[in-house]
Structure prediction request, 947 residues.
Amino acid sequence: MAEVKNVTITVDGKQVTAPAGTLLIEACKAVGIEVPSFCYYPGLSLQAACRMCLVRIEKMPKLQTACTVPITDGMVVATDTDEIRQARKSMIELLLGNHPLDCPVCDAGGECELQDMTFKYGAAESRYMEGKLHKEEQQWSPVVFFDRPRCILCYRCVRVCGEGMDVSALGVQLRGSSSVIAPNEGDHLNCEECGMCIDICPVGALTSGAYRYKTRPWEMKHVGTICTHCGDGCKTTLGVRRSDTGMDIVRGDNRDKSGINGDFLCIKGRYGFDYFDHKDRLRQPLVRKDGKLTPTTWEEAIEHVGKRLREIRDSKGGQSIGVIGSNRTTNEENYLLQKFARTVLGTNNIDHHRTADFAGFARAIAGKENITATMRDVASAPAILLIGNNPTERHPLLAWNIRTNVRLNQGKLYVVNAQPIKLQRQAARFVQIPEGREGKLVAFLNGDDAAAGTLTGASGSNDALKQLRDELKAQKNLVIIFGSELNGADITALVKFGSASGAKFICLGDYANSRGAADMGLYPDLLPGYVAINGPHKYNEEWGSLSKTKGLPLQEMMQAAKAGKLSALYVVGSNPVVDYNFDPAALQNTFVVVQELFLTETAMLAEVVLPAASAYEKSGTFTNTCGDLQLLKKAGDISGIKSDFEIIVRVAERMGTEVRRLVPFGSGVRADMGQTRGAQSGEADRHSVWLTANNLEPRFSPFDPYAMLDEIQRLVPGYEFSRLGLLAGNDQHVNAAERSNAGVAEGLVQIVPANDTLFTSGTLGRYSKTLNNVLENRRAPQNKEVMAD
Amino acid sequence: MVISDKLDKFFDEKMKEYPTKRGFLVPMLLYTQDELGYLSDEAIAHLAKKTELTELEVRNVISYYSLLHTKPMGKYHVQVCTNISCMLRGGEEILEHCKSKLGIGHKQTTADGTFSLEEVECIGACSWAPAVQVNYDFHENLTNDKMDAVLEGYRKKR
Prediction:
């Protein structure tokens, strides 16, 4: 493609240089000149409906809309003259003609673009004598409410739903001043419930069922953190208020558009946080007394766990203890848990719910450079091959980035799936293959023409497959994304195919930190960074000598329990009874400890249940399924609970471990705590207030996750990312899989995909009010009515 | 079939002449309404499929045009103009007269389904105001008596 040439224009006397074809409104923004607009939205089609961005361009007869004019060399533009101010004021006056003045109760009050414009251009006095048209608000779905009179018809919602989401659930009906935004089912919506329309609404016309009339924007603290649901790792901004339980998360949105998700959040990111204050949330440790789980104190619970584990370890040995880690605890917690298992409990029996074969992926790409793609790459890659999975349901951000790429960058999408999936609408080529033959497809891509026979079914023709292979081979900078349909040797074969032409890969796993669980070594045979337990490694140097014997994977732990050989099972944030069909009867004589948010099927079997913090109540890092590491910020405290990190440290301490060996706190960067007397007294307090406000802790605490992160960065290959970049809120791509040294795989691993939909999310989803409301609403019969005659 | 095979074939043939499938939507809506008397839910679904649009998008277009209806209208749809020229020459009186004569109001249909009434904007017959359009026929220079005769004519035709 030819280079686009730069042109220079003059805006309000300032010289602006930008590529030819840049929209005038964007060129102005680049030099800090704000041209107001309601209907213009970057990335969406142009509308020129609101007429707020009118500017004067020399030699053009009338005022022009800056949102639709591409810049040309020598253009001279004025954006702030009396004429323009008057034009904008008139537009506002027209908009306010029917707009209710209910700002004091409107959700958008305080962050409303119309309100801001009215303040700026002043059209507060109306010359209209007619009464305003009033219509009652409507509920369109469990999450979307519509207040018709507040709507200014910018069509942002219609476009984001159609172009961005490819759902097209919103339209405009009637015409002129009677125009109205209408949902696709007449009086309600049938859609993906993403809430994008609410977020993008410049006024309070579309409001959210979860947030409406609860608070005002300025009453909240806004915490930018990472969503706790799927493996995509969207940045979400939580609006937090104080409440009697410690904190109240009132809403989730994406006001911070700097994240890998840009404008995007799905229903889970926007509303799915609401499990945190579910009435069933555990707030007190439970210890089994006379056969019943009984609330007790932390002191007693930890003492009990520490004492029993110590007894079991000392009498029966570490190999009689099993540890199951989590897909939704932080990297630091996962790292700490396996270190605790290997060095304190003395066992390699550690595993987690594997939703993707990340270990197999690491084996396949070990030693290769630039072989993994980031989530951002998906939005800009010239071509994408998607094998298996259904990202629309299970990786909504990935699906959004793919759609955006196809729409805005003309990226080419190739889809291979056993089922028809929604993304095939964006696909340049869609090939449907029989269930379970994904591996054969990879063999075919690698040149095994005989494999085609098992892929084409009855039709017999493999022309489509051959075309697919030829086109893929011709693609430079392909991004290959695959689901849990592929594992082990199939991944190796796929990497062989792709790496020949310089492709990059993404392995799709479920849950917020499943990649982190894998990277941090929640494996019976692999240390953090996919380092073989029986190979050479550096961990011995810091941890003392480690057993080289491979531990038990999850299924074998269950068999050991059945055989009476598992004396203790330590479960953190996981529900193997449901996810892995772990037989409850097998655990009758096992001492089971569970750290969990809710009394899950597994927790019900435990002797001790320790109430843990959710990812909204702690700091740390998450690694998304692509390997993008991001900072998790604590939104607030909930009474009665402790972070998994603190719980593990306390248990270890009670087992007689020197805590500093487990968590290297009190070293490295030290905080200057100031003086306790004289003119500078109180500085210590002020300093700790600052640290707390920034979710940092002075390195005096054994519960400081960043002390663990220090060690992770020091020891885990591929985690040498920029700490400054991370703390600035940027995503950092890590390369643990590329730097891995995992040795040869032994036997088959059992991969159990979560198979969540848009409206489910494992244990957490079961306790989300909004997700449950939507599911219930879908089951209820609907009456169909048509809004416009 | 929601619409006659003949019409459907005609649509398929004609659609090829348009640069996009959706470009032919409005004529199709008009033809369909002529055949069915209104645009039923089934017809909307059918045309949406034909044009590869969502039903909502088809409804958006229908709602824009007041001459497209999604509810059954009378066999004879009486459209009385009350825009400026007709208003000055008694269009509003004609409308009132029709209302009392037919016993129905704006956008209503008589119980037997023969007539429906609608107050419309300019129908382009200003030179012969006041004017009324019944289906596709124009009746001009009307008085109450002439209007009676027009209605009677249609009643007989039934």
The mean pLDDT of chain B is 95. Chain B touches chain A at residues 41, 54-57, 59-60, 62-64, 69-71, 107 (CB under 8 Å). The CA atoms of residues 20 and 64 of chain B lie 20 Å apart. The longest strand of chain B covers residues 76-81.
